[in-house]
């Protein structure tokens, strides 16, 4: 049952991506992208609820659940941030990433069909995992906004000023503002996750390895924010740094 709903969530995200890209190509506003992603969000939440009941704990026990939780967090951040900053085109760039995460989560072997029900759970470990993945939603959306900035920058360099994509993209200053705000938000939530990780029981080597990686990712994002605050970072450099950091950190956690 949960797999069927997860497939539905993937299809809804794919529809959002394809329909949004088609609207951008035709130079019209994509009014349905947010609707498709909202429906996908509800389906993702339903699957997470089912997995939580199966595990008797926060559904972050395997790679598939981590990817699903990341997609859910990313979608939630888009639904909140997109409406606050009126970035309707953000959904067109977010939907492909959500589709990718859900698609990989559906690969056989990524998600345990019958996970073991937890007899007891470490509260701090659950909070560490939940805050960390929620942080990845904000940091992932920051990377998406950074990609939009780089696309806009390239469109300006190539003098493609009449394309539907260029006309729908927000101003560069607004995009960089969103990148910075999401970066700060993601780092703040990740800090809470790392703090909970320090308090959790670290009896296994795998848990210790995850915690060390979390510290490393937290340190890299903290260093980027510190340099940005003290010396300032050019917008293009900041956008590239945010995208590279998110891609590398996501790859590291998935491969652990």
TrEMBL record:
Transmembrane segments: 30-48, 60-81, 87-108, 129-152, 175-199, 211-231, 237-255
Keyword DNA damage: no
Residue ranges occupied by any Cytochrome c assembly protein domain in the UniProt entry: 65-252
Keyword Protein transport: no
A Pfam family it matches: Cytochrom_C_asm
Molecular function in Gene Ontology: heme binding
Name used for this protein in its record: Cytochrome c biogenesis protein CcsA
Gene of this entry: ccsA
